[in-house]
Specification:
4 domains, six-stranded parallel beta sheet, binds magnesium ion, about 10% strand, Arc Repressor Mutant, subunit A, about 650 residues, alpha/beta, binds adenosine-5'-triphosphate, about 45% helix, Rossmann fold, globular, binds zinc ion
C-alpha cells in the first residue's frame, strides 16, 4: 500500500495531466510504484504507460531517472510534460556541452522531477558519481524490451542499466532506488528476460489487457491494391495515417505514386539520407505531411496522437510487429482503422526476407536455422490472421495469451465481425480433412493435402501414389470450402503446420476432439457477394459519419467551431515550435465544442486540461468560443452545421 490515497492520486492525475480518470491497469501500476516496489508493466502501444511513472515521479521525493532509447522519444515526452508545467529535462547527444552542464546543475539543485537519460550515459564514471550525489526517487526503464535479445529492438547499452543501479546501491547512501520497467512487448520470453537482465527485485508484474477497443481491425484482399488504397485515402481526406510496406523499394514507388496523384505523402526508410528521413518524420508529426509511407524502421518514438489509420500495404512479418505498428493509430482514444491489404505475394516476399536475411548475426549455423524457423512460425501465424474468418481481435488477443470471455459473440469492431456471414456446420468436412492428413502421415504440405481431398490427378499425387489413399477425393463436393476449413482447423489447433522451409501439415493437439466426434465444428463463411456489398455500403456510411467529429457520447458538435479551435491550436503550436497535439488532443477540442466553457471552472473540466494548461490556455480558447458564438450564429445556420438535426 502506498501512502497516497486514491483521491490524492486522482487529484494529481487531473492537476498534472488533465485526465479525469485512470485507464485500464494504470491505477494498479501507479499504486505499486508509489508503494516503492520494483514494477514491470506490460501494456499495449498507446495504452498510456507514461503517466504510470510520471505521476508517481510528481508525488515522490527526489528526481526520477528515466532511461529511454531514442532522442525523439525523449523530446516528445519533455515537450508534453513541459506543457503540463512539469519540471523536467533530458541529457543526450543532441545537447551541447553547456546545455548539459546547465541541466546537471539544475538537477543538483533539485529543480526537476524527471530527467530523461540515454542509456549510453550510464557507464560514464563521472555521471555515476554525479548520480550518487542526488536523491533519486526511482529508476524508470522505458521501452524495457530493448534489454532483451529476444525483443525487436535490442540495445547493448540497455544491458548496462543493472550495473548502474548496483553501483548506486554499493554507494550505500542513498539506498538502491527501486526500478520500474515499461514495455508493450508481450511475449513471456521477453518479459522474463527483462526481469532477469534488469535484476528486478521481487517485482510486481502488471500485464494489462491487450485490447485496444478503439481500433477497427480489417484484412482486405483487393485485386488491385493501389486502387483500393487510393480509394481508402480519399475517403479520409483530412485524416493522418501511416502506410507500412515490406521493402524500401515499395516505399519509394508507392510514395511517388501517391504524390503524383496529389496526396500529401512522404517516404521514410533507413536507406534515405538521415536529414531527409528526419525532415519527413518531423513534417508528419507537425501535420505538414498527412501520410507517411514507411518500412518498419518508422514508428518508435512517434507519439503523434491523431494518427487515424495504419495501413499495411503488405502483410507484416509477425503479429508482434503488427500489433505494435497498428497500435500507433488512435492513441487519443478516437476510433481508428488498422487495415492489411493482403496479397498472395506477401508471404513469399516475407519468406524471402527471412531466408535471405543478412541483417542479423548468428552465433552458429544451428542457431541460424533455429531462429529462422521461429521467424517462419511467426509468419505463418500472421498469415493465418489474414485468412481467418473469425474475429480478428480475438485472434490477436489469443495470440498474446489473453483469455476471451465469449469468443462466439465476436467484437463487433473488426472486418470479420462487421461483415454479415453465415455459420456453417463443418463437422463432417473437418473429420474428412483430419483423417486424410492422418493417412498422409504428416509428410505433405497444404496444397498437396487439398489436391488429395479434391481428387486431383496431378503428377505429385500420382508419383507418391496418393490416389490410392482411402481419403482420395472425399471432399470433391466441398471444393470451395476446403481451403477455408483448413485455415480454420489450423487457427484452432486441430491441425498444425511445421516451421521448416517446406512446411507440412500434421494433426494438431486438439484433433481427437473432432475425430472422436466429441464436438460440433462451426465455421463462419466468407460473406456472399450480395452481403459483402451491403456491408460495404454500411461501412462507407459509417466512415462518412466518422469523418465528422462527435462528442464521446455520440452527440453532434459544431464543426465550424471545431475547425476554428483547431486553427487557434495550430497558431499556438507554431509559435512554440511544437506539434499541435502537444498543446491539446483533438479530444480536448471536441470536449470544448460540446461543453462551450464560459468560466475557468468550466474549462478545468475539459478532458486534457490540467492546472498548467488551464492557466495558459483557458482565456484564449474561451475568447475564441465566445467570439464565435457572439458572431450571430443563429437558428437555421447552426442546425445545418450540426448535420441538420432538429
Ligand atoms: N488516464 C488517461 N485518460 C485519457 N488519456 C490518457 C490517459 N492516460 C494516457 N492517456 C493518453 O494516451 C496516449 C498514449 O499514452 P502513452 O504515450 O503513455 O502510451 P504508451 O503506453 O507509452 O505507448 P508506447 O508503447 O507507444 O510508448 C497519450 O496521448 C496520453 O495523453
Ligand atoms: Mg511509451
Ligand atoms: Zn471481431
Amino acid at each position: 500500500m502506498s501512502e497516497f490515497s486514491s483521491g490524492q492520486q486522482l487529484d494529481a492525475l487531473k492537476k498534472y495531466f488533465g485526465h479525469g480518470s485512470f485507464r485500464g491497469a494504470q491505477e494498479r501500476a501507479v499504486e505499486s510504484i508509489l508503494g516503492g516496489r520494483d514494477t514491470l508493466c506490460v501494456m499495449p502501444t498507446g495504452a498510456g504507460k507514461s503517466v504510470c511513472f510520471q505521476l508517481p515521479a510528481m508525488l515522490l521525493d527526489g528526481v526520477a531517472f528515466v532511461i529511454s532509447p531514442l532522442i525523439s522519444l525523449m523530446k516528445d515526452q519533455i515537450d508534453s510534460l513541459s506543457q503540463n508545467g512539469i519540471p523536467c529535462a533530458c541529457i543526450n547527444s543532441s545537447l551541447s556541452l553547456s546545455e548539459i552542464k546547465n541541466v546537471l546543475s539544475n538537477t543538483a539543485k533539485g529543480r526537476y522531477k524527471l530527467i530523461y537519460i540515454a542509456p549510453e550515459r550510464l557507464d560514464n564514471e563521472w555521471f555515476l558519481s554525479f548520480a550518487k550525489s542526488l536523491k533519486i526517487s526511482m529508476i524508470v526503464v522505458d521501452e524495457a524490451h530493448c534489454v532483451s535479445q529476444w525483443g525487436q529492438d535490442f540495445r547493448v547499452s540497455y544491458t548496462k542499466i543493472s550495473d548502474f543501479v548496483d553501483s548506486i546501491m554499493l554507494a550505500g547512501i542513498p539506498a538502491r532506488p527501486f526500478v520500474c520497467a515499461f514495455t508493450a512487448t508481450a511475449t513471456p520470453r521477453v518479459r522474463e528476460d527483462i526481469v532477469k537482465m534488469l535484476k528486478l527485485q521481487n517485482p510486481e508484474i502488471i500485464v494489462a489487457g491487450f485490447d485496444r477497443e478503439n481500433l477497427n481491425f480489417e484484412v482486405r484482399r483487393p485485386a488491385k491494391k493501389f486502387e483500393e488504397l487510393s480509394a481508402f485515402l480519399k475517403e479520409r481526406r483530412d485524416k493522418s495515417g501511416i502506410i507500412y510496406c515490406l521493402t524500401r523499394k515499395t516505399v519509394d514507388e508507392l510514395s511517388e505514386k501517391l504524390k503524383s496523384l496529389g496526396f500529401n505523402a512522404a517516404p521514410y526508410h533507413a536507406g534515405l539520407p538521415s536529414q531527409d528521413r528526419h525532415k519527413n518524420q518531423e513534417d508528419f508529426i507537425f501535420d505538414r505531411v498527412r501520410i507517411i509511407v514507411a518500412t518498419n524502421a518508422f514508428g518508435m518514438g512517434v507519439n503523434k496522437s491523431n494518427v487515424s489509420f495504419v495501413v499495411h500495404y503488405n502483410m507484416p512479418k509477425d503479429i508482434e510487429s503488427y500489433y505494435q505498428e497498428a497500435g500507433r493509430a488512435g492513441r487519443d482514444g478516437s476510433p481508428a482503422d488498422a487495415v492489411i491489404l493482403y496479397g498472395g505475394q506477401d508471404i513469399r516476399t516475407n519468406l524471402f526476407l527471412i531466408n535471405e536475411s543478412k541483417d542479423k548475426q548468428y552465433a552458429s549455423a544451428e542457431e541460424e536455422m533455429y531462429l529462422k524457423s521461429l521467424e517462419r512460425k511467426r509468419l505463418k501465424e500472421m498469415d493465418l490472421y489474414c485468412n481467418t474468418h473469425e474475429c480478428l481481435r480475438h485472434y490477436i488477443l489469443k495470440y498474446f495469451g489473453e483469455e476471451i470471455e465469449s469468443p462466439q459473440s465476436g467484437c463487433k469492431n473488426c472486418g470479420n465481425c462487421n461483415c454479415e456471414s453465415d455459420i456453417k456446420d463443418i463437422t463432417v468436412l473437418s473429420q474428412k480433412i483430419l483423417s486424410c492428413v492422418f493417412r498422409m502421415r504428416g509428410n505433405f504440405g497444404k496444397n498437396t493435402v487439398i489436391d488429395v481431398l479434391k481428387g486431383s490427378k496431378n503428377a505429385r499425387v500420382q508419383r507418391f501414389m496418393l490416389d490410392k489413399l482411402s481419403t482420395y477425393g472425399i471432399c470433391k463436393e466441398h471444393r470451395t470450402e476446403i481451403n477455408d476449413a483448413i485455415t480454420f482447423l489450423l487457427v484452432n489447433g486441430f491441425l498444425e503446420m511445421t516451421n521448416g522451409e517446406f512446411p507440412v501439415i500434421k494433426l494438431g493437439s486438439r484433433s481427437d476432439e473432432i475425430l472422436k466426434g466429441k464436438i460440433k465444428v462451426e465455421m463462419k463463411l466468407s460473406a456472399s457477394k450480395q452481403k459483402e456489398s451491403k456491408a460495404a455500403d454500411e461501412r462507407s456510411e459509417k466512415i462518412a459519419a466518422g469523418k465528422i467529429a462527435k462528442a464521446p457520447n455520440g452527440a453532434d458538435i459544431d464543426q465550424k467551431l471545431f475547425a476554428n479551435l483547431k486553427s487557434l491550436r495550430a497558431k499556438l503550436a507554431a509559435a512554440q515550435n511544437l506539434p499541435a497535439y502537444i498543446i491539446f488532443h483533438d479530444s480536448a477540442l471536441i470536449d470544448m465544442c460540446a461543453k462551450l466553457p464560459k468560466t475557468k471552472e468550466d474549462f478545468s473540466r475539459i478532458s486534457g486540461v490540467g492546472a498548467q494548461k488551464l492557466a495558459r490556455y483557458a482565456d484564449v480558447f474561451m475568447d475564441e468560443i465566445k467570439n464565435y458564438l457572439g458572431r450571430g450564429r443563429h437558428g437555421e445556420d447552426r442546425m445545418e452545421e450540426r448535420g441538420g438535426r432538429m
